[in-house]
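Predict the 3D structure for this chain.
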Amino acid sequence: MTPAMETISYLRRGRKLRASGTIITTDQKTRMTKVKPSREDWGIVWLDEQEITAGKEKPPMRPREKRDAPAEKTKPKRQRAPKPEPLPRWKQLVADVRTMEIDHVPDGWPAVRMGTLSALADELEAAHAKLAEFLPISNDKG
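Done. Predicted structure below.
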């Protein structure tokens, strides 16, 4: 039997954390102890001897987990993908002229003769193809 007004720690069934409180009284008939928890927002609880005994036992020691390797303080820089090489100038000009061909009506507004511009693009492509026959120029890099 525990005396009244003693501070104890206890572990309720189904709980993992211990709590503490002050013993108010002990009922001999039921062998239950009436305890006022230390936290103000908790109400009175009735505990049996097993819960009081479980609160006296220290929880098992758990050693700290050591890391095998020290944590890196700086993250490795992410390697960016290399930028693609820009198109050769003649391919850019052909693409610009072809874009105008799509956006305009032949012999219409704005005053651009699309037939002339298309022919210009065709001639530029043909000249590049002839030049590539005689010089070691790849078609991709121009």
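Helices lie at 49-56, 89-103, 114-134.
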